[in-house]
Design a protein that fits this description.
heterotrimer, A alpha/beta, B mainly alpha, C alpha/beta, A: alpha/beta, Peroxisomal Thiolase, Chain A, domain 1, C: Peroxisomal Thiolase, Chain A, domain 1, 4-stranded mixed sheet, 14 strands
């Protein structure tokens, strides 16, 4: 019999609002992403100076993970790190924001190593792995839209094949035109109240309006 | 020399995004890599680019990188010696 | 592909000097396609003239692979997977302030869609962008999707170009070798970039495979160092974990591996880390080789390109030499292949590691 997997927690960042498990937990009238990200980071009260070195895509994904993990329904902290946890993420525009920055540097006749290293989308995965100590399956997909059925099928296969026991899944996009982060942490659980990890539930969590905060 | 050191500290804070550090908090002899300011090898490369841009100095990480990039003092000495 | 294989056997390198390429006027040593490369193709390039250079190179590779099989690449049962780090990123330099239209044109979903159109595939293409393991990762993904029964066939293409965007960045990392690189050598001091596209077509239909010595994609795995964004693991434990899992997925053990096609970028830390990982995995006596001295580091294409060459090795019972190798390095205990060798081969292991801390391992088995 196949184990059923649950969504142990989820986080969505829409513009300046952070929702964890569909509840608004942070709302800030920032003038730009940078200000929003710094305030949201300080609000978490963690000491992680690396945060200030990250590009915007990594900051966005980092914040989603920090808020998700600090608001767990269950406490599966032991499963967050290690060789049996994976990260499978996707977006449309890869690391475009930083790509443009690197291109601007080139035009000025110089290349910055600290900028160039972020011109890969999977650097976000690398940042999360470093922060959380995650060593299992990790892949960054690029797609026109968030392919929820495809990602869910693939992650479920990795879980069923016991390559991993837990996984961060989601969609993290940052461009000058806007940003959006959705991150869920999935794994086995006996807690009946938790939503099943299916493409239907992920679809709801990703697309659904979260009540008054968005009205 | 003191002006150069002060300038270096400001450049380090700005280019390495040391948001939580004030330039004047960096000691002249304080090791800036490893535990010192929590900098890593990408920061070292960034400092090398910074030295080239601002002072026209070429440094390779393999040859004399670690020795020169030890502290603000060692960097300032190297600049004074090699500045064009 | 046969021509590439023959050139490798003859210890040739495609890496040459391009003077005054870098921002400070210094040379770039890289393996690049000639400007008029499409004229050398034995077929007419498919697709419209609107394709970018990146897309054209990928399409040419798919066409060459398609000519060798009767498998219907346009079938809804065929999945198309593109592996790349930067795709058509060279387009960004076309406009001082890139327009929204240009950014959309340069994006990877656009490239994947246009490439898929050239062979009539209507499925949503999958794009893997996992730094330097992208190609290997895409083959592992394809194998899993076929095993799960989601598709019957897979077209996996890995492609990347040597653009100013990429080489100026690697130069700022002081990661580039002046001259031809020296994988697994004591005096190695950096990598050469290369541009390439390579394609593998996978199928679950044994009857559709024409070769008398078909290659089975036996198993693969991906792990992460969780240590540093650009520097590899100090211990090699995470690559070893990927190797261990790939062998388990393949249903075999380390002792059965006849050859390792390593990442072997010729940077100080990568080659050292791989040596440690092979020893930890019980593979310290297995012959290893790297093609980076001949073809350069082809980034997102490397995993596919080098897997194709490994498959050819297994099928022809021929081990390729490590072009550029000079002298042994203490951290690598494996015998490094320096001359072509002929011997019966069954299992081959391909490894790769990349920025972001990712590692990948893939096991091929020659059947019959």
């Amino acid at each position: 019999m196949k184990t059923s997997f649950k969504i142990l927690g989820s986080c969505r960042i829409d513009e300046n609002k952070i929702f964890v498990n569909q509840q608004l937990v942070f709302d800030n009238f920032a003038i730009n992403f940078s200000q929003f990200a710094d305030t949201a980071y300080q609000n978490q009260g963690v000491d992680y100076p690396r945060f200030y070195k990250m590009n915007n895509l990594s900051k966005l994904g980092f914040l989603a993970a920090e808020y998700l993990l600090s608001n767990f329904v269950e406490s599966p902290s032991a499963h967050v790190s290690g060789e049996l946890t994976g990260i499978i993420l996707a977006n449309h525009y890869s690391s475009l924001d930083t790509d443009l920055k690197h291109q601007q540097f080139i035009k000025q006749g110089v290349a910055s190593p600290a900028v160039f290293v972020y011109t890969l989308p999977n650097i976000l995965i690398g940042e999360l792995c470093i922060r959380q100590g995650i060593k299992g399956e990790n892949t960054f997909f690029i797609a026109a839209d968030y392919d929820i059925p495809g990602q869910t099928a693939y992650v479920t296969q990795l879980l069923n094949d016991q390559l991993i026991t837990h996984c961060f899944v989601g969609w993290v996009e940052y461009t000058a035109a806007g940003h959006q982060a959705f991150l869920a942490f999935v794994g086995p659980s006996a807690e009946a109240a938790l939503p099943d990890y299916t493409s239907t539930t992920i679809n709801l969590l990703f697309h659904q309006s979260y009540g008054r905060a968005e009205s | 020399m003191d002006a150069l050191k002060a300038e270096l500290k400001s450049l380090l804070v700005e280019h390495l995004n040391l948001t939580t550090v004030k330039p004047e908090e960096i000691g002249d002899d304080q090791p800036i890599f490893g535990d010192g300011l929590g900098l890593d090898s990408i920061d070292a490369l960034e400092v090398i680019v910074l030295l080239q841009q601002h002072y026209g100095i070429r440094l390779t990480k393999a040859e004399n990188g670690p020795k020169v990039l030890y502290s603000v003092n060692t960097i300032a000495d190297y600049i004074t010696e090699h500045r064009k | 592909m046969e021509a590439n294989f023959a050139a490798l056997l003859a210890n040739q390198s495609a890496v040459v000097e391009y003077p005054q390429q870098q921002l400070d006027g210094s040379s770039l040593w890289a393996a690049r396609l000639a400007d008029d490369w499409p004229t050398a193709l034995p077929f007419a390039l498919a697709g419209s003239a609107q394709l970018t250079r990146f897309e054209q190179v990928a399409v040419a590779s798919i066409q060459a692979a398609q000519a060798q099989t009767a498998i219907d690449l346009s079938s809804p049962r065929t999945v198309f997977i593109l592996a790349t780090t930067k795709g058509s990123i060279d387009l960004l330099a076309q406009e001082p302030e890139p327009s929204v239209e240009l950014l959309a044109r340069a994006s990877l979903p656009t490239s994947a869609r246009l490439i898929a159109q050239t062979f009539g595939n209507i499925n949503a293409p999958l794009v893997v962008s996992n730094a330097c393991i992208s190609g290997l990762n895409a083959i592992v993904l394809a194998q899993r999707l076929l095993l799960a029964g989601q598709y019957e066939h897979a077209v996996v293409v890995g492609a990347d170009l040597v653009s100013e965007f990429v080489y100026s960045g690697f130069y700022s990392f002081q990661a580039l070798c002046v001259g031809r690189c020296r994988p697994f050598s004591a005096d190695r001091n950096g990598l050469n970039l290369g541009e390439a596209a390579a394609t593998v077509i996978l199928t679950t239909d044994a009857a559709a495979v024409a070769s008398t010595a078909p290659i089975r994609v036996a198993g693969g795995a991906i792990t992460n160092d969780a240590n540093h964004l650009s520097g590899p693991s100090r211990t090699g434990q995470e690559l070893e974990l990927a190797i261990r899992r790939a062998l388990a997925a393949a249903g075999t053990i380390a002792e059965n591996v006849n050859v390792i096609s390593a990442h072997g970028t010729a940077t100080v830390y990568n080659d050292e880390m791989e040596g440690k990982a092979f020893a930890l995995a019980g593979l310290a006596n297995t012959p290893i080789g790297s093609v980076k001295g001949a073809l350069g580091h082809t980034l997102g294409a490397a995993g596919v390109l080098e897997a194709v060459l490994l498959a050819q090795s297994l099928q022809t019972s021929t081990l390729l030499p490590t072009v550029g190798y000079s002298e042994p390095m203490p951290e690598v205990r494996n015998p490094v292949l320096t001359t072509p060798q002929t011997k019966p081969l069954r299992y081959g292991l391909k490894t790769a590691s990349g920025f972001g801390g990712c590692n990948g391992a893939l096991v091929f088995e020659r059947l019959h």
